[in-house]
Amino acid sequence: MSASIEWDQSLIEKYNYSGPRYTSYPTALEFNESFGMAEFEAAAGRYPERPLSLYVHVPFCHKLCYYCGCNKVITRHQGKADVYLDYLEREVERLAPLFAGRIVTQLHWGGGTPTFLTEPQIRRLNGLLRRHFRFAGRGEFSIEIDPREIELSVLEVLKEEGFNRISLGVQDFDKAVQKVVNREQDNDFIKALVKRAAELGFESTNLDLIYGLPLQTPASFHHTLEQVAAMKPARLSVFNYAHLPSRFAAQRKLNEADMPRPAQKLAMLQDTIGYLTGQGYQFIGMDHFALPDDSLAVAQRRGELHRNFQGYTTQGDCDLLGLGVSAISMIGDAYSQNHKDLKRYYGQLDQLGHAQRVGYALNEDDRLRRDLIKTLICNFELEAAPLEREYGIRFADYFAEDIALLQTFVDDGLVTVEPDAIRVAPKGRLLIRNICMCFDVHLRRQARMQQFSRVI
Q1: Were 8 and a residue from 46, 167, 179, 427 both cysteine, which residue would form a disulfide, CB within 3.0 to 4.6 Å?
Q2: 8 Å CB contact between 143 and 109
């Protein structure tokens, strides 16, 4: 199925409160120090037949984007990346034997800015991974690109190294917006990058946009959408800017008075959905769009879409191994995260030979609710029978309290609850996070609510 959307302004305003994005269940707030390396090793051996997805975090950036909340290190010293690769090599050598025999069907380099790395550094890191892991002949191998600091020829290097998907951080084409958030870039060069990627045979190009930044207006952001749609990238991610200056110091450089008001942000989102779907894009969910022939859109229509810490994915049957500072793994029935601080990441590798810091082992109730939430957030409908068979439950009895919490959504026409199914109506799909929260027993400790961004 594909996700048709019906905009209901009053209901969106009614339910626009804080909540998780459900890239995992339970969320990272549940990670704790009782989950250590012994638990990680046990989790790695739980499903040895699963293919493997690798995520590599490259934390370095040349410049500070004031809106950014990522784990990053701002530097102009290229040698710092050599030191980082030395430590990554030690981490890989420690962890790769735990996954011997696994086939890597997905690879993603994120950051920070992976293309902070020079051509020799890119080849070194890719060679390291290829030596220690078995890669499938075909898979999804992607990398995030900052279009401000690279040459067009870098795309050829990436293609030679086996990457077949790229993601460009664009955010906005408006020059005034770019300047105020400290991310000035050459719009024509971005278009040239997308064109060259197609010529070289990259299978998919994703562009990231952000709405809600200072100086943006519905009209100015629509102009950005027009320029982006003309480029026909296979995928688009259109994120809501969350202003959290108490957590992210760089955001204090932005003037809240310059930011669009909540009503303007909603207008931008409504226009984004209407315009992009009108241009032929399929709404995947929340902030993601894809052309109908893209694998993400195809997977959704087939009911095979999945979600993890990298967002929506077609590779849901994989274990996910995160490498590098702050990286998160989803291994077996557990989550694990490395040290977030670079010095501590280095220090623990020196002392213990690994960087694992915190994690969480799912119990059976967690696994059941994880599967339920993932199904709803990806497909907007849930059949009870598969869960009943796998977990030996009677759905209506097990989730009686949760279904009762759904009643307000049922009354507002956002959800239909049947004896053996839950279906989200088109006007409920933008509020899928709220609906999933009804099944989140960890979230019922209401004090946690303030630590999440608003759902819209």
Answers
A1: 427
A2: yes
Burial state string for 422-436 with b = 16 or more CB within 10 A and e = fewer than 16:
bebbbbbbbbbbbbb
CA–CA separation, 155 and 152 (whole Å): 6
Whether omega before 36 lies within 30 degrees of 0, making that bond cis, reads: no
pLDDT band, residue 296 (cuts 50/70/90): very high
Q: Which long-range contacts (CB under 8 A, 24 or more apart) does 261-264 make?
A: 262/16, 264/216, 264/217, 264/218
* Secondary structure in 3-state letters for the chain: CCCCCCCCHHHHHHCCCECCCCCCCCCHHHCECCCCHHHHHHHHCCCCCCCEEEEEEECEECCCCCCCCCCCEECCCCHHHHHHHHHHHHHHHHHHHHHCCCEEEEEEEEECCHHHCCHHHHHHHHHHHHHHCEEEEEEEEEEEECCCCCCCCHHHHHHHCCCCEEEEEEECCCHHHHHHCCCCCCHHHHHHHHHHHHHHCCCEEEEEEEECCCCCCHHHHHHHHHHHHHHCCCEEEEEECCCCCCCCHHHHHCCHHHCCCHHHHHHHHHHHHHHHHHCCCEEEECCEEECCCCHHHHHHHCCCCEEECCEEECCCCCEEEEECCCCEEEECCEEEEECCCHHHHHHHHHHHCCCEEEEEECCHHHHHHHHHHHHHHHHCEEEHHHHHHHHCCCHHHHCHHHHHHCHHHHHCCCEEEECCEEEECHHHHHHHHHHHHCCCCHHHCHHHHHHCCECC
- Asked if 323 and 95 touch (Cβ cutoff 8 Å), the reply is yes
| C-alpha dist (Å) from residue 238 to 54, 55, 103, 296, 430 | 24, 22, 32, 16, 13
Q: Is 186 buried (19+), middle (13-18) or exposed (0-12) by CB count in 10 A?
A: exposed
C-alpha–C-alpha distance, residues 109 and 94, integer Å: 19
Number of alpha carbons in the 13 Å side-chain half-sphere of residue 307: 25
Distance CA 331, CA 27 (A): 15
Q: Which residue type occupies 35?
A: F
CA–CA gap between residue 263 and residue 249 (Å, rounded): 26
Q: What is the pLDDT of residue 19?
A: 84
- pLDDT level of residue 380 (50, 70, 90 thresholds): very high
In a 13 Å sphere around the CA of 238, the CA atoms on its Cβ side amount to 32
